[in-house]
Amino acid sequence: MSNTRIAFIGAGNMAASLIGGLRAKGLDAAQIRASDPGHDTRARVSAEHGIQTFADNAEAISGVDVIVLAVKPQAMKAVCESLRPSLLPHQLVVSIAAGITCASMNNWLGAQPIVRCMPNTPALLRQGVSGLYATAEVSAEQRDQAQELLSAVGIALWLEQEQQLDAVTAVSGSGPAYFFLLIEAMTAAGVKLGLPHEVAEQLAEQTALGAAKMAVGSEVDAAELRRRVTSPGGTTQAAIESFQAGGFEALVEKALGAAAHRSAEMAEQLGK
């Protein structure tokens, strides 16, 4: 990425996170630019990261190598169609918009090399994980560029089939909300068991953080880690058996299936 020039179309939170990650990895501010219709948004991103900003999308993409589409899915068609006359064949388009397929973007942009990504909100803390899919037009060098771009805010994992992005959306794209829900539920249960709310909340939050760090740093899988902290006949076993008696695994499977189905449904609706 040392000589790569990048333009962000849309300068909201996720774009700002990527820009910050790239700057932290040593990319020069002169290599990055962004466009956004909001004056305050442009001013904030420019002040925080020292990059040039534009109100006009076509002006922003002039002369760049990589174009990152960081706009809401509902705005993607209009943005792509407005960019089409200004695009050059070699420019890589990276989309971080949920539910917009490569086929739809090709219809709106023309035959550009496209990498479609599904990041998640922990990218705002550079602790994210993204699924990436590249069309056949994407070169090996461009794959590396996309990899480095998304790796600036976490982990980037390549997929062989575009439809797998629906599963990525279900597992990691929507995933942070599932853990927030569990923290909420554990906090509420702790309060009912007699703890002050603030104490129960901190216990739940720090436990979630510690468990995640153990899982990421361990040489064994989550199932083995669970077994290691579940003493026979102990308190953990009592809780785990209660979860399982309530159909915990089946409920998780059903929930993620619903999310994946909705992702595919949105792609069909938004891609018209």
From TrEMBL:
GO terms for biological process: L-proline biosynthetic process. One of its GO terms (cellular component) is cytoplasm. NADPH binds at N57. This is Pyrroline-5-carboxylate reductase. Catalyzes the reduction of 1-pyrroline-5-carboxylate (PCA) to L-proline. It catalyses: L-proline + NAD(+) = (S)-1-pyrroline-5-carboxylate + NADH + 2 H(+); L-proline + NADP(+) = (S)-1-pyrroline-5-carboxylate + NADPH + 2 H(+). It is an enzyme of class 1 (oxidoreductase). Its EC number is 1.5.1.2. Belongs to the pyrroline-5-carboxylate reductase family.
